Amino acid sequence: MQGRMVLITRRLIALLTVLSLATVLAGCGGQSSTYDVSSIGPKVHIGVLADQPGLGFTRSGQRSGLDIDVARYILHELGFVPSQIVWSDLLPAQREEALESGRVDMILAGYSITGPRSQRVDFAGPYFISGQDLLIRKADRRIRGVGDLGGRRVCAVAGSTSVEGIIQRVPQAQVRERDRIGACVTALLSGDADAVTGDGMALAGASAVMGGGQLALLGATFTSERYGVAVRHGQPELVAAIDKALDHMMTDGSWMQSVRNAASGIGFEIDPKASRPIPPVH
């Protein structure tokens, strides 16, 4: 009798163990690795740049650039198909409003993560580390660094961190804001500006496409810019899913290939190791 009771007890313990394990596995199974796209879809609206080669550029209806590659990778990881993607061209000064108004669901537009911006939007990432640089005329030998900008006319894109970056470091600089980088390049070529400031890759792209061989990137960065993926406040699950997708992109080789393609397409020398945040952190 005692042996039978021991056997029953052992079987009961084994049964309870199996049931407990099944409960745990069921709980884990409810946490899908794919984001619930129905919370955004059926269409997903992505805010991007259209006039900055290397980052976000549109020519003959074809989009290219690092921001575009990263966006496509993330959306695929989240479960979206290409037919669901709606691209929305934005100027830098329009980014926060575009998210807050619901015009776009996500922004990948050379968008640096900053404290003030994080008060209006949530960021995933970063997915790229850049730095503020200077674009000058090749024939102008007066400017060799940010310290030479005192009293000089410096063009920067409105709504970018580059405006504040120059004002903080060279209060004597005459900062001229334009709505897009092409307008700054035009001002530089025409002599209405002595330099253009912005992130290195953006300046290299502008010079390659619009500079006519007359401009030079100094290659002396003086800030660190962390490009992030912006979404509306209050979507922690979406932020986590994007971070997971970025981690995959950086570990499977896709990120490195995209960075190299973007840089080589505009003749930009880049150090992938210095530009790569591992893992994605805020």
UniProtKB/TrEMBL annotation:
Q: Which domain of life is it from?
A: Bacteria
Spell out the InterPro entries in the cross-references.
Bact_solute-bind_prot3, Solute-binding_3/MltF_N
Give UniProt keywords alphabetically: Signal, Transport
Q: Which GO terms describe its cellular component?
A: extracellular region; outer membrane-bounded periplasmic space
Solute-binding protein family 3/N-terminal domain location is 43-259
One Gene Ontology term from the biological process aspect of the record: amino acid transport
- Entry's SMART domains? PBPb
Which Pfam family, any one, appears in the UniProt record? Answer: SBP_bac_3
Q: Does the keyword Transcription regulation apply?
A: no
Is Oxidoreductase given among the entry's keywords? no
UniProt lists the family membership as follows: Belongs to the bacterial solute-binding protein 3 family.
What is the protein name given in its UniProt record? ABC transporter substrate-binding protein
